[in-house]
Design brief:
single chain
């Protein structure tokens, strides 16, 4: 069993993290899940929320909005549509995103409404931590 998991977090703008970690917790569209070294291969969609990276007893958190998590024997790669260290988020920016999500929810039905509501729920959860 490997002692560490290679983890990479990438957004369209930049690579936010790359390194060996103990565990990563991810907000999946089907529920939160954790990835440890030697995890079984997995591909999962991620929802808006916080990724928590555990490394040598310390925790780092990153805001993510949409994307995919890919677990392979080589490690875990998260390709996020939008991502930033939680320390870079501002309450004002999240409140703007919440207002925008609420506006876009009007008139939607079915899967489209569900996706926007899931994004809104994630934004509200992140806003509560700021």
């Amino acid at each position: 069993m490997a002692d560490k998991l290679h983890f990479s977090l990438v957004s369209p703008e930049r690579e936010l993290y790359a390194g060996e970690v103990d565990q990563v917790d991810i907000p999946g569209t089907e529920g939160n899940f954790g990835v440890l070294p030697d995890h079984a291969p997995l591909m999962a969609a991620i929802r808006t929320g916080a990724i928590t990276v555990y490394e040598n007893g310390a925790e780092k958190q990153f805001f993510v909005q949409g994307g995919f998590a890919d677990v392979t024997p080589a490690g875990l790669t998260v390709l996020a549509e939008r991502a930033a260290p939680m320390s870079e988020l501002t309450s004002e920016r999240i409140q703007e995103d919440i207002a925008s999500a609420k506006d876009s929810l009007v008139g939607l039905e079915g899967e489209a409404a569900l996706a926007v509501q899931q994004n809104l729920d994630g934004l509200n959860a992140v806003a509560a931590t700021l």
